[in-house]
Design the sequence.
């Protein structure tokens, strides 16, 4: 049990996010279509004298490195599932942070998924099968199980119950992540509830979109564009009105569709080809509100080991 283990893990967007009523545990019942995209964090773990987490990359300064870091919480939670009598060394975790932080792309959850997969390998916890890893993941956060899977998948319950969706081919995305706009997920759900109450709207049980499933099965980007939907979008725009402008500029520049990702504020634009993605990202950089612009392809694979180097 020594060496360095590294795991690559993608961010996600939601192609459909249908938010139902609030449950007794305070979570909202969801039906969502997760879609992993090719923006990756890298989580590297190695044995150490004490637990620690270190973050590099463009968003490093926005990631906590104390006990609240979700990758650290994930590693410690997994360590508690060791076989009786086995002593495990603490780990040092290094995160190369490329997924926007507090952006609705589940970057923190991605790091947790990456830490689980990397630490299982590092510690040689062969008894931790995928089912158990998923159970631990669900306890860490609603999006963590999906990031173990990747691809395109329906999320139900509070998002933690994941069923893969058959989706052929690739979708090209341009992502806009506003600087310093980060939104807290609970605040966006609360705003959604507030708007619904204010408008006296009935909240129905969440439903997966049959039209979107058909579009994904056929991998018909125009039909996918038509059926992108996010119940949290209005709340995210209400809290960050600049998102309305971002969406308008992207659509004016020729995106097939634009949608706020999850609880936002990242905005995902769907385009037809890689060339169109380049054109749109150049146009957005020149004409859109200030933000980071990333190009990505989906579906991307979930958390995967990329390196295992045994030390002497
Ligand atoms: O599960 P996770 O820790 O990612 O959730 C963060 C917060 O988002 C929750 O505390 C809750 O306020 C909100 N949430 C929700 N319903 C969900 C998922 C998240 O209300 N299905």
Sequence:
């Amino acid at each position: 049990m020594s060496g360095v283990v590294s795991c690559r893990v993608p961010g996600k967007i939601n192609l459909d996010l249908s938010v139902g009523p609030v449950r007794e545990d305070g979570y909202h019942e969801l039906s969502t279509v997760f879609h992993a995209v090719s923006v990756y964090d890298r989580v590297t773990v190695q044995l150490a004298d004490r637990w620690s987490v270190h973050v590099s990359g463009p968003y490093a300064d926005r990631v906590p490195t104390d006990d609240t870091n979700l990758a650290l919480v994930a590693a410690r939670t997994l360590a508690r599932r060791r076989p009786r009598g086995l002593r495990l060394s603490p780990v040092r975790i290094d995160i190369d942070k490329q997924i926007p932080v507090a952006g609705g792309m589940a970057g923190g959850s991605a790091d947790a998924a990456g830490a689980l997969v990397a630490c299982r390998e590092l510690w040689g916890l062969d008894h931790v099968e995928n089912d158990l890893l998923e159970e631990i993941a669900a306890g860490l956060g609603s999006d963590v199980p999906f990031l173990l899977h990747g691809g395109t998948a329906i999320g139900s319950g509070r998002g933690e119950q994941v069923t893969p969706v058959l989706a052929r081919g690739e979708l090209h995305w341009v992502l806009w992540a506003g600087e310093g706009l980060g939104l807290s997920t609970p605040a966006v759900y609360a705003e959604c509830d507030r708007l619904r109450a204010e408008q006296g709207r009935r909240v129905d049980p969440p439903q997966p979109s049959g039209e979107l499933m058909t579009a994904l099965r056929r991998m018909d980007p125009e039909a996918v564009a038509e059926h992108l939907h996010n119940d949290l979008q209005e709340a995210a725009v209400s809290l960050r009105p600049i998102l309305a402008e971002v969406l308008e500029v992207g659509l004016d520049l020729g995106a097939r569709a634009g949608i706020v990702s999850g609880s936002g504020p990242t905005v995902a634009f769907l385009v037809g080809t890689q060339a169109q993605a380049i054109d749109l990202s150049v146009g957005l950089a020149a004409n859109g509100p200030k933000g980071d612009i990333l190009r990505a392809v989906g579906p991307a694979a979930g958390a995967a080991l990329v390196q295992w180097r045994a030390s002497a």
Residues 171-298 form a domain with the Alpha-Beta Plaits fold (CATH 3.30.70.890).
